[in-house]
Amino acid sequence: MDKLVVLITGGLTGIGRAAAIAFAKKSAKVVVAGRRDEAGKELVKELRSLGAEAEFIKADVRKEDDVRAMVDKTVARFGRLDVAVNNAATEGQVGPITDQTAESFAATFETNVLGVVLSMKHEVRVMQAQGSGSIINISSTYGHEGAAGASIYVGAKHAVEGITKSVALELAKSGIRVNAVAPGPTDTGMLTRFTGTAENKAALATQVPLGRLGLSRGGRRRYRVHRFGRSQVHHGPRPQRRWRTQRQLILLGRDYSAPDAGAVFLANLRNCTV
User: Radius of gyration over alpha carbons of the chain, in Å?
Assistant: First the structure.
């Protein structure tokens, strides 16, 4: 694999951090974006210790000036942008619809939806100029299902998947591919906040076929990729992925367990990247 230039928003914790490490292990040039300077600098040290070229850019995806600068700084540093992973998200205010407010709605949608829209706007801007690129938006299994007590988060992830499909169609002839990844329940800090208690988290794990959560770290298992829209399950690497766009990838671990976040992106290196 050539050394891809990869930008990851929300890259400091959880799935975003696991993605950064997975790409670094594949010798990509990695830019992680987030809002905490110290955490960003520490992650960059770790990525460089793996032999990768890496940079941290402080950015808030809710602010267009930050997003524009994030993308421009990436290109200024590495000369291009091959892959963008739009992962920044928040769980929002969990609870019944009667507890939701205009403020709780806006807080969730500004990060989870507006952040994706602004990121894609500026990623596409530079990818169009170079005639190629791959955008991977992080959704959730809740992006195509419902969940009691999580209506605002669920609505935001549904929006991400719809926007992903629409932008993929807009760009189908441009050399830029746009796909979504929908991880199952993954044991991250956000999931801990989302579930609220250890009992709630354990109950959520029982909804996974093998009764456990995914882990936000790399693994050595063989992973399978199920592509919605076609009744196919692919095993291992396949050549000539460049035609794939407007896909929703559900990443499943061995025996269809919940996904390991690091392996999600190892799979995406085969399925979504240029």
Answer: 17
Which pTM was predicted? 0.77
Quick one: CA dihedral 261, 266, 269, 271, positive or negative?
A: negative
Amino acid at 24: A
Asked if 38 contacts 46 with a C-beta cutoff of 8 angstroms, the reply is: no
* Residue 153 is a catalytic residue: yes
Per-residue pLDDT of 211-250, as tens digits, reads 666 665 544 333 333 333 322 222 233 333 444 555 555 4
Alpha carbon 70 to its chain centroid, in Å, reads: 17
> What does the alpha-carbon distance between residue 50 and residue 30 come to, in Å, rounded to a whole number?
11
CA distances to 18, 35, 90, 138, 171 from 157, rounded to whole Å, are: 20, 21, 11, 9, 21
Do residues 115 and 9 make contact, with C-beta atoms less than 8 angstroms apart? Answer: yes
Tell me which DSSP letter residue 259 carries: P
Extents of the domains making up the chain: 5-271
Of these residues, 142, 153, 223, 256, which one is catalytic?
153
CATH class for the region spanning 5-271: alpha beta
